[in-house]
Structure formats: C-alpha cells, structure tokens
Amino acid sequence: MTSKRQSFGLFGSLFVSACCLGAGPVLAALAATLGFSAFHSLLNVFVLLPLMTISVLWVVWNLRIQGRALAGSAARYPAFWSGLIGGALAWVGVLLPHVVAGSKEAGTALIIIGMTFLIGASVWSLIDQRRRLDGPARSV
Fold it and tell me: What pLDDT was estimated at residue 36?
C-alpha cells in the first residue's frame, strides 16, 4: 500500500519538475488555447509550487512511514534523509527563479539534483519494502 501512495507523490513531483524544466510552454499553449494565457506567470508560482510542495511532502511522509516500519524510526532510515534532502533541493529549485532574478540555471540544477535524490530514495525504499516482503518466504 505504501508503494502506491509513494508513487502518486513521486508522479506529482516529476510532473512539476518536468513543467519547470521545459514542459511549461506546453502548459502555456494549453492555457492560451483555453483563453488563460494571462495566467501563465501565475501558473508557475501559484499552481506548480503548491503542487511541488504537496508532492514532496507526500513522498517524504511515505518514506517516514517506511522508515518506521523497516528501521524502527525514520531518523535511522537513510532513504528518508535522502528523500528529504532531495525534496528540499527540488522545491528550492522550483522557487528560486521566482525569488532571485537570473537564477534559472541554478534552479534547474537544483531540480535535477533534488529529483535524482528523491527518485533514488523512492526506489531504495521500494526495494527495501520488496526485500522485507520476500524475506520470510525465502527462508522457509
């Protein structure tokens, strides 16, 4: 069940990252087609940033649950920390170009690095979960 919940958060984070890394024009064209072209700049800050926040928090929350189940505490689960750091980097990467002028390249780099950590932590967690489920069956 945790893997399905985690997949939803990861999908949302990937969607927002894709929008910030280049799929934004596709959304802008769609908005223009629907008559909302004036809202393009608002889309980035008022739609994508909250979506990124919710998605990252969702993945980190699921990694916390996974850490409690596998390691007894999220603080002792390295995948949790990797996901938390990666999510924070990606979130700052989405926000940075809207706060500091001329920081689009730095924001892009933070998104790429952060999402690499977040995806890696999610895959790590799913592998750990699969090992835990398969472990008792193999020992019998």
Answer: 63
Alpha-carbon gap, residue 66 to 76, rounded angstroms: 11
pTM for the whole thing?
Answer: 0.73
Place of tokens 């998605």: 55
Could you tell me the residue range of the domain that residue 12 belongs to?
A: 2-132
Q: Domain for residue 66, yes or no? A: yes
In a domain, 139, yes or no: no
Torsion sign (Cα): 111, 116, 118, 119: positive
Dist CA 127 CA 44 (whole Å)? 34
Q: How many domains would you assign to the chain? A: 1
How far apart CA 96 and CA 138 sit, in angstroms, is 48
Instruction: Calculate Rg over the CA atoms of the chain.
Output: 17
| pLDDT per residue as tens digits for the range 36-62 | 656 656 666 677 778 788 888 888 888
